[in-house]
Amino acid sequence: MDHGSRRNPVEAIGAKVLGNLTYIGGLSLLLVKTMRWIGLGLFTKKVRLDGVAVSTQMIRVGIKSLGVVMLVQGFIGMILALQMEPPLALYSQQGQISSIIGIAGFRMLGPIITAVVLSGFAGASIAAEIGTMVVAEEIEAMEAMALNPVRFLVVPRVLATILMMLLLTPIADLMIAAGGYFIGKIALGPEVYREYWKSMRDILKYRDFYTGMIQAGVFGLLISLIACFEGLKVRGGAEGVGNATTMTVVYSIVAIIAAAGVFTVVFYVFKL
Questions:
Q1: Are 207 and 108 in contact (CB under 8 A)?
Q2: Is residue 86 within 8 Å of 192, Cβ to Cβ?
């Protein structure tokens, strides 16, 4: 056995840390470039944002995933109601199911579950599309024609994903609430559904909605950035494209959960 080719644990840990820092640095650089082109498009006349490209990507990213998002969120609401009814029934508090579903759905579950669905539905598609363009040398052809890939490929996908996350999240929130009401109506009894909507309306505050929307925008940014970054760094033909789509979903979900944890701490500290 060639012991010289094996890394000791310290070297392995160091390589892993440096690899993660390199990845984060690459994402940060792509974010800066993307924000620069968006800023130029919004505040100068030299650069024009391609509305057609953005709307096309919005249809691909959001409209086609609407049914999946609604279905998943509806089931989430049903599951929450069924899981909470037995322990709350011990204290005759079944009427609080709507309050819990409303706060959990609007503040966290709506944006998180929507983002997870989009990471698999749209993120993988974006990574595969851009990765295929890299393998086919279309990116090099664009650069040869003085067309910046970030401006023409990344910016429309980032804007579309953020916008569709902001549009899909309120629908997801309502589907979670409706799922809870539906299961209460058919299975849990009048203690749950009689005052369901009134109790939810009374407990929810504006901050429950806008904190969820803030998270939705950030999750959309993370999904699109990771997908575009993975697509742009594809190497090795079809196998590289496959790896990019897989890692896009994995990294997106990890980033979404990590960001949700950070937001939870921040909102708790500032009493939001």
A1: no
A2: no
Dihedral in degrees, nearest 10, Cα atoms 241, 31, 264, 70: -50
Average pLDDT taken over every residue of the chain:
90
Burial class (CB in 10 A: 0-12, 13-18, 19+), 13: exposed
- The answer to whether 51 touches 40, Cβ cutoff 8 Å, is no
| pTM (two decimals) | 0.91
d(CA 154, CA 49): 12
Rounded-to-integer distance, Cα 217 and Cα 111, Å: 9
Report yes or no: 211 and 232 within 8 Å, Cβ to Cβ.
Answer: no
- The confidence score (pLDDT) of residue 4 equals 47
pLDDT band at 1 (very low <50, low <70, confident <90, very high): very low
Find the mean pLDDT for residues 132-151. Answer: 91
